[in-house]
Design brief:
The chain has 172 residues and is an alpha+beta fold. The chain has helices at residues 7-13, 21-34, 36-40, 51-63, 81-97, 109-115, 133-138, 140-145, 158-161; strands spanning 69-73, 101-105, 118-123, 126-132. The protein has a domain at 1-66. Strands 1-2 form a two-stranded parallel ribbon. Strands 3-4 form a two-stranded antiparallel sheet.
Length: 172
């Protein structure tokens, strides 16, 4: 994000490699439809946007390039829970409606598993488990270590979870 540019100038910078003013304007309108808060702040310098608005601006600017694949690294980082839900709903809409492939890197496993189709779990830079999210959500290790659930579905306290000894069946 360019702090000294307005919200709209930032969005238009995402389309700098494209031609066709009419198409760019149509895409700008589509971004404002996905992120109505950005439309209200189109003339505000981007440095004055909130963290959530900056995240929306970053996604919007990327969309202006008409990507086939978008990599999002921790889109929930530092955001309020309600805003995290909104961002994830928009990511899901982009995937389903625009047929945009999204590679999502996210520590909020519970939220990521609600919108993903396939997941990879990494530890220390290695993929230790992958599969369809339905299978990952039902995996007892994923439930315990990443979702904080016990076998019977009750949440554990942080004190209990932080001292676990991983079974690490998947690394054998």
């Amino acid at each position: 994000m360019f702090d000294d540019l307005t919200t709209e100038e930032n969005l238009l910078s995402g389309a700098h490699t494209r031609r066709g003013v009419a198409e760019i304007r149509a895409d700008l309108a589509a971004v404002y439809e996905y992120f109505p808060g950005l439309a209200e702040r189109r003339t505000l310098k981007a440095g004055y946007l909130s963290g959530g608005e900056q995240q929306m601006l970053a996604i919007g600017r990327a969309l202006m390039a008409r990507p086939k694949l978008m990599l999002l690294d921790e889109p929930s980082l530092g955001l309020a829970p309600l805003l995290v839900e909104e961002i994830f709903q928009i990511i899901q809409r982009l995937n389903r409606q625009e047929k945009l492939t999204v590679l999502l890197v996210e520590q909020n496993a519970a939220m990521a598993l609600t919108i993903a189709e396939h997941g990879y779990i990494m530890e220390n830079g290695r993929i230790v488990l992958d599969g369809p999210v339905e299978a990952l959500r039902e995996n007892p290790d994923v439930k315990e270590f990443y979702l904080g659930l016990t076998e019977v579905g009750a949440r554990k306290s942080y004190r209990d979870v932080k001292h676990y000894k991983r079974r690490k069946r998947w690394l054998s």
